[in-house]
Amino acid sequence: MRKKTDLGRSGEDLAAEFLDSLGHTILFRNFRKSFGELDIISLENDSLHCSEVKTWDMRSGFHPLECFHETKRKRMRKVYYYLLKEVPAFCHLTPSFNLIHITEKKEVRFYSSIF
């Protein structure tokens, strides 16, 4: 299990560096509630980006976008609404729910506003 945790952490590090290179300010990493988590929350202009990071081997047989079923989307939205309760200053920002896919070759694929 340790190896999977290390892989996930290194993927999130690459994702954070990528967002930073796009001009995002990283606000939170692993913002958790009992019912869900947002891997990276970043600010860019007037948008609050809530990004799910998947470090994924494409040989698994399906694409990481397939993980964004209705239950996952509901959990991410719920965590986002709790974030707004904790930091009301974010209420005026436009939300963007994203996927950052880190490939087995450490390539970063960014899917913005997927839902």
Automatic annotation (TrEMBL):
Q: Which Pfam families match?
A: UPF0102
What GO annotations for molecular function exist for this entry?
Answer: nucleic acid binding
InterPro entries with a match to the protein in the record: Restrct_endonuc-II-like, tRNA_endonuc-like_dom_sf, UPF0102_YraN-like
Name residues in a coiled coil: none
Family, as annotated:
Belongs to the UPF0102 family.
Q: Which PANTHER family match?
A: UPF0102 PROTEIN YRAN
Give the protein's recorded name: UPF0102 protein EHR08_14525
